[in-house]
């Protein structure tokens, strides 16, 4: 099985999306799959590179979108790629169509903030004929910095969910609902995440010598 990971974060290999995606890919490789990564913003730098990327999508058995939530949607380069795929397939339908799975994380405490972005991806799959293989979504993505061992509890439930998802996908199945629920479990109590997050913002304000209060909203209306 050939699996293509499309990393939608502009941070590329330094991103939380790549961190999660590489762990899922590790599990897929363990079940005999061949995995390729593409950084979407690199793949769209020229028309020649875009065509190669579109060819790679058509050559895959499974495509995985791994991306961070931007407000409540996808990063712009990934959205553009979806448009290019749809445009190309409307003119020349591919001989074979890969399945589609999604791996998304957000900085909000709640995983359900990713529901709209997942809905966009699922609608895209329906419109292009890609069989839907399911989605993994998590909140508190701001905690994902470099190493699962630094997460509360070593990120055990994330690793367990990624392992089970990899096993199912490698066998041609979908991401089980119970696995998606396991993956979406909070990494820590909500109040702790908010306290640490706000402390991080204040440290950045001090580092950049910002004098306005953190609650300052200069462009609010009314």
General description of the model:
By secondary structure, the chain is an alpha/beta fold. It has one domain: 3-Layer(aba) Sandwich (Rossmann fold), CATH 3.40.50.360. The chain has helices at residues 16-30, 40-43, 47-59, 76-91, 115-128, 156-170, 177-183, 190-207, and strands spanning 2-7, 34-39, 62-68, 99-105, 132-138. The chain is globular and about 60 Å long. It starts with a strand and ends in a 15-residue tail after the last helix.
CATH homologous superfamily descriptor: Flavodoxin domain
Major sheet details: 5 strands, parallel
CATH topology: Rossmann fold
Let me know the number of strands.
Answer: 5
Proportion of beta-strand residues = 5-15%
User: How would you state the average pLDDT, rounded?
Assistant: 92
User: Which architecture would the CATH scheme give at its second level?
Assistant: 3-Layer(aba) Sandwich
Tell the overall outline: globular
**CATH class division:** Alpha Beta
Spans of at least 5 consecutive residues whose pLDDT stays below 50 are: none
Q: Total domains, how many?
A: 1
Q: Approximately how much helix is present in the residues?
A: 40-55%
Rg (CA only): 18 Å
What is the topology, as strand order, of the major beta sheet?
2-1-3-4-5
């Amino acid at each position: 099985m050939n699996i293509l990971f499309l990393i939608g974060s502009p941070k590329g290999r330094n991103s939380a999306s790549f961190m999660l995606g590489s762990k899922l890919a590790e599990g897929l490789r363990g079940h005999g799959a061949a995995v390729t990564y593409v950084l979407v913003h690199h793949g769209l730098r020229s028309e020649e590179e875009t065509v190669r990327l579109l060819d790679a999508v058509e050559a895959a058995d499974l495509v995985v979108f791994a991306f961070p939530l931007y407000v409540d949607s996808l990063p712009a380069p990934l959205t553009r790629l979806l448009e290019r795929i749809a445009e190309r397939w409307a003119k020349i339908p591919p001989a074979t169509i890969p399945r589609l799975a999604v791996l998304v994380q957000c900085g909000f405490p709640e995983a359900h903030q990713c529901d709209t972005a997942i809905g966009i991806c699922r609608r895209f799959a329906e419109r292009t004929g890609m069989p839907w293989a399911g989605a993994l979504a998590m909140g508190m993505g701001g905690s994902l910095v470099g190493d699962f061992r630094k997460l509360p509890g070593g990120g055990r439930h994330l690793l367990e969910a990624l392992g089970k998802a990899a096993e199912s996908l490698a066998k041609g199945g979908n991401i089980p609902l119970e696995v998606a629920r396991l993956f979406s479990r909070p990494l820590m109590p909500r109040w702790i995440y908010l306290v640490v997050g706000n402390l991080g913002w204040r440290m950045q304000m001090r580092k950049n010598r910002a004098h306005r209060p953190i609650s300052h909203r200069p462009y609010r209306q009314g």
